[in-house]
Amino acid sequence: MFISKSSCIGFADSRIFAHSPVFQRHRLCFTRICSQFAPIDYRKLGEKYVQRFGIYNVYNLAARDKRYLQQLLIDLIENCRKLEHTLLTGSRNQVATRFNRGNKPQLKSEAPEKVDDFLYECLTKNNSIRSFLLDKDNEFILRKYLITDPIPKNENTIKMISSYVSHAINHNAPISEKLIYLSLRQLLKNEKSVPFDNFISSFEIVDLLYGKDSNYTKFLKSKFIANFIIPLSAVSIILLPLSQIIFLSSTYLNIGLMLIQYSMNIGFFLLFSSNFFLKQTSRIKWLNGTNWFRCIIHQNELLMINRIITYFDEFYDLNVENYHLIGSSNSSKNNGLKSLNHFRANNNFNIEFFLENHIDDIKEINSIDQTKPKNEEELELLKFIIKNLRNRKMILRTKETERQFYQFWSTRGENFEWIEPDQDPAEMILLKMYKK
Q1: CA separation for the pair 14, 30 (Å, rounded)
Q2: Helices within 171-252 (DSSP H only)
Q3: Under a CB-based contact definition with an 8 Å cutoff, are residues 124 and 130 in contact?
């Protein structure tokens, strides 16, 4: 793939960096548009970006040089994404005519995946670029890499986030949850691969970050011990000599017993009241009897799995909230899959319900109803999700709308009453339109 030197986007604002002597000596693309300049290969272009970083010491940068290098990486990402978009849309001839003058070489036929892999190599292969990119102050560059269309393939996204987390742990820096959830969203909606592979990649990044053997989980365990166990032990050592004085003296005996009872009550409250520490989710919860310490350490894992299940409910599952959209243009992804624990109707309008307590075996997915899935991949996806939940000691939490629908159906509408709204919703919409 070729692009012209003159077509490169400016690496930095010339008004800001024009007075920098280093920039003036080593500038790349701030040249006059001359016809004698031959196009350069995109790999050569990437090498020039890397050479620019070799000039600076990324660990001791001035504010102006830091802004320049940030813009340099953003330009590299944008240029590679534009090249990849050109290859994906098939507009090579138009770009070749625009970039090449005279008898210049034409655009080479390159696979878009090569450009994606090349961009990842440019950002991670060089140690100085990698250290600069993964710094906590340059998080917006990683976001640019993840959200710029066409988005990277799943493999590169997972490796990039893994490098980011490892770098943050080694430098004792905070990990941005927004960046983690952004990567999860990009994995789920990536159109470069089939939905089944997207869900597999989503669970992979959860295991990579919050799995029991991951470095980040070990970091959380050590942090929890340091913040909870060590102060508790220090307080115990201080109170141990005082306890002897309290119990030896009959005057302070009642006070000592009261303090012990009060401490035991607090301890039991912290141990058995998981709601005090744990975050509640809408779709999944921990299996009864799960270790409290595990629930504390892996609550981020619970939140990410809940996000995956919610995405599946919204786009790929059949439930009370989206059954009326099946076949419409607003629900192109939702093709009537067998649901995880929701109702499903066959052609004879027989409806069966499977709530969270009824799913005791993965084999029950095969017998939800007599309607066969459109392909085996849909069934494998459901088995894969259920199996991953079981391995993590999680179970599905039935939606409140599903519970109400099941109660309404099983009681044939008893104890339910239709309440007319004060005003027609359509009239409210028209009123808002008139006000605008």
Answers
A1: 8
A2: 177-188, 195-210, 215-224, 230-248
A3: yes
- Residue 271: which residues within 8 A CB-CB, separation 6 or more? 292
- Structure token digits, residue 64: 């102006």
Cα–Cα dist 386/391, whole Å: 9
| pLDDT per position as a tens digit, 344-398 | 444 333 344 444 444 443 444 444 443 444 456 667 788 888 888 888 888 888 7
Is residue 16 pLDDT above 60, yes or no?
Answer: no
C-beta separation of 50 from 13 below 8 A: no
From the list 262, 243, 261, 263, the residue with the least C-alpha distance to 252 is: 243
The pTM score is 0.64
Closest CA to 118 of 72, 66, 79, 170: 79
Using the structure block, give the residue that is written with the tokens 């994906």. 88
Q: Each residue of 188-235: pLDDT tens digit? A: 888 777 778 888 888 888 888 887 777 777 777 777 776 666 666 666
Structure tokens given for 377 = 């991949």
Per-position DSSP letters for 361-405, written without gaps between them: -GGGGGGS-SPPPSSHHHHHHHHHHHHHHHHTTEEE---HHHHHH
Q: Residues 269, 276: contact at Cβ < 8 Å?
A: yes
Quote the Cα angle for 213-219-221, to 5°: 80
* Phi, psi for residue 76 in degrees, rounded to 5: -60, -45
Within 10 angstroms of residue 207's Cβ, the number of other Cβ atoms is 16
Q: How many CB atoms lie within 10 A of CB 337?
A: 20
47-67 confidence digits (pLDDT tens): 666 665 555 555 555 666 677
Domain residue extents for the chain: 1-148, 295-410
Judged by average pLDDT, the poorest of 41-50, 292-301, 421-430 is: 41-50
CA–CA separation, 390 and 396 (whole Å):
10
8 A C-beta contact, residue 384 and residue 391:
no
Give phi and psi for 363, each to the nearest 5: -65, -20
